[in-house]
């Protein structure tokens, strides 16, 4: 699964989104609980404006790893972009707390800015 995940990352960075999606999906097929693969697939789908599918992948990453601060943050951004401010606020608040708990103050400050922009 990890080899497919890493190849997916490489292809994603090369903007070969169709092939990257295939590799992330293969990593997930091999290991359905691969939170990072769900998260990166969510990022790819979000970039392609496939918001419903991106949301599903972010939520799956969070189901597998509830402390996945980046997934909460990116889900918050997606929810904000799709005009769901209350849900976005909830995800941003969770992300901020997790980043603070992990000692990642800069990331927490960025999330705080996102929170303020939807208040």
Give an overview in words.
This protein folds into two domains: 1-53, Tetratricopeptide repeat domain (Serine Threonine Protein Phosphatase 5, Tetratricopeptide repeat, Alpha Horseshoe), CATH 1.25.40; 66-119, no CATH class. Helix 5 packs antiparallel against helix 6 (85-101). It has helices at 2-13, 17-30, 35-47, 51-64, 69-81, 85-101, 105-118. 82% of the residues lie in helices and 0% in strands. It is an all-alpha fold and 119 residues long.
The best one-word shape is: globular
Task: Return residue spans where pLDDT drops below 50 for at least 5 consecutive residues.
Answer: none
Number of strand elements = 0
Helix content: over 70%
The arrangement of helices and strands along the chain is: HHHHHHH
Helix run count: 7
SS-derived structural category: mainly alpha
TPR repeats: 1-34, 35-68
Protein name: Tetratricopeptide repeat protein
Pfam family, one: TPR_11
Keywords: TPR repeat
Describe this structure in a few short sentences.
The chain has about 120 residues and is mainly alpha-helical. It has helices spanning about 1-15, 15-30, 35-45, 50-65, 70-80, 85-100, 105-119.
